[in-house]
Amino acid sequence: MEQFSPLPPALDLGGEWQFSPDGRSWGAITVPGCWEAQGYPASLEGPVVYQRRFAVPETWQGQQASLRFGAASYQARVWLNGRYLGRHQGMWDSFALAATPWLRVGSENELRVEVVKPGHRFPWQDTLAGFVPEVAMPFGGLWQPVELRPHGDLVLGRPWVRANLRGAAVANVEVQHLGAAPCEAELEAEVFDPSGSPVAQVGQRLSLSPGQREVRLPFQLRDPLLWEPEAPHRYLLRLRLSVGGVVRTSAERPFGVRELRARGHQVWLNGRPVLLRGVLHWGFYPRTIAPTPTEAELRDELSRVRALGFNLVKHCLFVPPETYQDLADEVGMLLWQELPLWPPTVSPAQRRRALQQYPILVGQRRGHPSLVLYTLGCELNSSADAPFLRRLYRSVKRLAPDTLVRDNSGSGECYGGLLVDFADFYDYHLYAQPEHLGPLMDAFAAPWRRTRPWLFGEFLDSDTFRSVTRLRDQLGAGEDWWLSHDLDRNPLAERQALLDQPRRLQAVELPCDEAELERRSFARSLVLRKQVLELVRRYPSLSGYVVTTLRDVPLWAAGLFDDLGRAKWSPEELAAFNADTVVLLCPPPRRSWIAGGDRLVAGETYCAWGGGRVWRPLVVSHFGRGVLRAALRWRVEDERGTVVAEGEPRRVRLQAGVVQEMGVLDFQAPEVAAPRRLAVHAWLDGHEPPVRNAWPLWLFPRGHRRAETPAPSVETPAPPGRSAPSTGVRLHDPGGRLAGLAERFATPDRAEGGEVLVASCADEVVLEHVRQGGRALVLQSGAGLLPIRRLPFWREGLPLIFPHPALAAFPHDGYADLAWESLATDQAVDSPRLSAALEGATEHRPIVHRLDLRDFSPADYAGELRLGQGRLVYTTLAFEHAASPEWGLERCPFASFLLDQLVGWLAPYSGPVKLDS
After folding, report:
1. Are 18 and 48 in contact (CB under 8 A)?
2. Computed from CA positions of residues 407, 409, 412, 417, in that sequence, does the dihedral angle turn out positive or negative?
3. What angle in degrees, to the nearest 10, is found between the helix axes of 386-399 and 348-365?
4. How do 312-315 and 334-338 pair as beta strands?
5. What is the DSSP string of 778-816?
6. Does the pLDDT at position 128 exceed 80?
7. 342-355, pLDDT tens digit by residue?
8. Closest Cα partner for 706 from 723, 728, 724?
9. In angstroms, rounded to a whole number, what is the distance separating the alpha carbons of residues 611 and 702?
10. Are 781 and 876 in contact (CB under 8 A)?
11. CB contact set of 25 (below 8 Å; sequence gap of 6+)
């Protein structure tokens, strides 16, 4: 395609500038870029001074010119050749200042810019700085490109095109007439298809008066090629503005033909439902601090995000350079732009700036087919009132009518804000434990709610372990600032427990070295992400999700990529549950007659009794292109790969956008004498790309010890090196939580002789029993003498399994995974405080230990210690739930097994014991 412009090219003013932090001393700095990434202290707020000289070619004679700044943080005041041009406030938007009257064509010019960043003068909380100060620091400087652009009396703004699936299109462009007298002009538009062939041409006569006006040029495309993630076809619009047959100025812009709609519960792209699978991006780039990666780095980032199965990136509370949107248009990545209204309490200054800057930001970004969603703030509370949010919503919706818009990401109803919203879709941030996420979704996606698409704007963070010692050796110069204790390099230092990690880990008992800790944390994090994404994909009302987060940041290691930019998991590992079409294994629905009526009984998904019937619904979630036609198959294998059970293939025919049960895993489990781990495989035959998924399934021996002598009976092996228990068990239940164990063990008021005491809390009765040489198992929940911390079981920590006879027969990988589904708890014993809480306690031994991955503090889900002459085993695992009448240990094989193993470890041993079948 021939390209023509009557104007000389713009003059790039990037490169080395002179820089003065105080107006007296001078050094060098590179533009674009922020000063903190170039060796200047983070505490420097300004005003600082940028200065450079440049020459303007003689060919610019007779042209007008403007200085254009891609972005500056935060306030910039500009002088050219000693003349003040103006100032600008705002971190994210570009701005231009007229330079013509003071520009020296054919000779040298001096440009001076004074910059102040967010700080004391402009508090970052008021500047729409967004979330970058939370994950890095408020940055300052000319962080985007600076250039001098020539132009004549007639100027074309950047055009944008909106087109529908039928090919009806409109080109929109602002025409600015800077002259003094009216003129007659002709605006011509030519459109080229993705191959470069001309496909449309249109023109319009314009009577232009001094000032600015918007022009709309309708045109028609025949059988348009659509822009979508799988095939991001782009057309090119070229505009020319002529006066008297002479071209005065021109402009061009790629565009895509796509149509986005909210239809029922779903988002429809180009006439079909799409499941938005996104990753949260906080704009953290450690090398540059400001979000200014190179084009090559952005291409690599988008390529690797797509490889992991994601089709969307959410820019959370920061606005990236437009290069990001250009590349997303090119490669077919959907974008969600969250505008930077944060923190949750909106100040008067934020209100003014949002109302002023949002239309500018959206106006500068419209026309990108990749940009499909806007949210106007994050987790805003009641300080964001209805008139303010309504006005923001309407302004953005008017400027970007081809996007879906929401006022408050996370919703006001969840964060103390408005109970009404101004939105095209629901958006919740349910950072929940898996056992609580289903009930939360049942409530927030209730069928009586207004029908709209339902998205997780962000959720599912999962920290992993990183060694600060190894990072110091691995990170290159310029990327390691966030590991410094120097607050002038690293303003986050006082908040980073990571910097104190070596000392803190010395005080923690661990079952492995740091490399193994990292491996286990990656493996368990993958388990959690798989568990949660498979759970939410069971809901047909779900339109999409955004997973937290793209890469690790200084305060948290919850990224999909680590601090060196490496993916923590392979595309193959994530494809099983993060693709257009996936197969899901669901827990069987169960009910039980309790207290005179039916109740829902939560069923286990990943544990079952040996010798019993195993059945699980197999569900297909299909958001691929067209109708799904395939055969659903499943197989169960043992540890050696031997097939234990296999199902007949079942034909599947499913419309796109449907979530439906398409088969049942159903087989008779083999008898087992000790726990075994099987693997369940399910896949779709005849589908491309391949759709496969797999899950562990643990089988447990059916049988447990009772107070009376049962018959008939079978033998069960004792823990290695010990015989099975032969003495009785007594219950001590001041909290009334062990009623479900009454049939399992005898229940006198106190323990006597050689019996094991099973107690619902650690009180003086229990402690005295142990000090006198007794043995006790404390199923601690809530009040008691053990020091308790409320901590999430699945998030932020790594539950490590220590070598212990009570778990010797259980196949595991060193961490608590899906087998612990029904044992998950939000309480742990604060193990460093045990000695102070239990006078005389010694020989502390973890069994299931929690290492916090944010502050590296230890806690126990299960452990044992010596007290006086006796031994105490304690656990906060959810046996109390498993032992309640609503559940029953009969329905929780692992809980039943583990309870027996812990009791058996405490009992005196004299030989094998008979257990009922």
Report:
1. no
2. negative
3. 10
4. parallel
5. EE--SSSSS-EEE--SSSSEEEEEPP-GGGTTS---SB-
6. yes
7. 999 999 999 999 99
8. 728
9. 8
10. yes
11. none
Query: Cα–Cα distance between 913 and 901 in angstroms, integer?
Result: 13
Peptide bond into 229 cis (omega under 30): no
**Which tokens go with 449?**
């709610």
How would you classify the pairing of strands 95-98 and 312-315? Answer: unpaired
Mean pLDDT of 373-385: 97
C-beta of residue 337 within 8 angstroms of C-beta of residue 125: no
| pLDDT tens-digit readout, 3-14 | 456 788 999 999
CA distance 106 to 109: 9
Phi, psi of 536, rounded to the nearest 5 degrees: -70, -25
Nearest to 900 by CA among 777, 740, 774, 722: 777
304 neighbors 562 (Cβ within 8 angstroms): no
Bridge partners, residue 694, by sequence: 681
- Tell me if 192 sits within 8 A of 161, measured CB to CB: no
CA 439 to chain centre: 21
Kind of pairing, strands 676-685 and 628-637? antiparallel
Show the tokens assigned to 501: 């990690």
Within 260-337, residue ranges assigned H as helices are 295-307, 322-331
Dist CA 630 CA 582 (whole Å): 12
Return the residue matching tokens 């993630």: 229
What is the CB-side half-sphere exposure of residue 702 using CA atoms within 13 A? 12
How many angstroms separate the CA atoms of 460 and 50, rounded?
43
Give residue 882's pLDDT: 58
Tokens of 170: 């409109």
Residues sharing a CB contact under 8 Å with residue 284, sequence separation 6 or more, in sequence order: 132, 135, 136, 291, 550, 551, 553
Backbone angles phi, psi at 596, to 5 degrees: 85, 15
Q: What tens digit of pLDDT does each residue of 146-198 get? A: 999 999 999 999 999 999 999 999 999 999 999 999 999 999 999 999 999 99
CB 121, CB 47: distance < 8 Å: no
Q: What is the pLDDT of residue 753?
A: 47
Sign of CA dihedral 406, 410, 414, 416: negative
Give the pLDDT of residue 601: 76
Q: How far apart are CA 632 and CA 663, in angstroms?
A: 7
Mean of all residue pLDDT scores within the chain: 91
**pLDDT tens digits for range 810-865:** 999 999 999 999 899 999 999 999 989 999 999 999 999 999 999 999 999 999 99
- Map residue 626 onto helix, strand or coil: coil
| DSSP designation for 8 | P
pLDDT in tens, 66-117: 999 999 999 999 999 999 999 999 999 999 999 999 999 999 999 999 999 9
d(CA 275, CA 267): 7
Q: How many residues does the chain have?
A: 917
Cα gap 566→588, rounded to integer Å: 38
SS3 195: coil
Q: Find the Cα–Cα–Cα–Cα dihedral 176, 372, 399, 321, rounded to 10°.
A: -50
What CA–CA distance (Å, rounded) separates 337 from 358?
Answer: 12
* Spatial separation of the C-alpha atoms in residues 15 and 54, rounded to whole Å: 11
Question: Token pair of 203, please?
Answer: 């023109």
DSSP 440: H
